[in-house]
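hiii, so i know i said id send this last week but things got crazy w the move. better late than never?? heres the sequnce for the chain we talked about at the cafe, plus the structure i predicted for it. fair warning i was half asleep when i ran it
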Amino acid sequence: MAFDYSLDFKNIDFRQHPELYLVGKGEQGVLLVEPYKSEILPYWRFKTPEIARESSQKIYEMFIDYLEQDDFIGADMARKFLQMGYTRSRRYANHKSGRKYQPDANNSHDKKEILPYDVDPIKAESAAIFKTKWIAAKTNDKYLQLLAKHKQMYEKD
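okay and structure toks below
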């Protein structure tokens, strides 16, 4: 099922209401779902490989802690932050400004022009660090079991 952006995220504690959480695709909801966003976001950094290593390790430890508590939503949110660490640092690795597309002066919805690549090896290394932790999280056996259980309980079509 698609992530439900219509929920009142400012007033929902997803730890208390796991039935309202939909996994969605990729990083959907990563900056919305509380209290997890506030627990994980302070540790999310990728400016240098050293910072990315420390950040990804801390978030992965949080992922494991959530799993040990059978807190699927916390684990999924930590997985999303690891994924976002990879995708954002990869974007900055490819485009120094962090913008993928050429700014559109006329605001048309036609196909946007992708800016030229200007590869930053420092951000590319940060991306690789996050990617390793993200892959470890999304393939973790207990995570996959809790994912299946959550979908069976709450995400019936």
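btw The mean pLDDT is 90. thought thatd interest u
miss u guys!!
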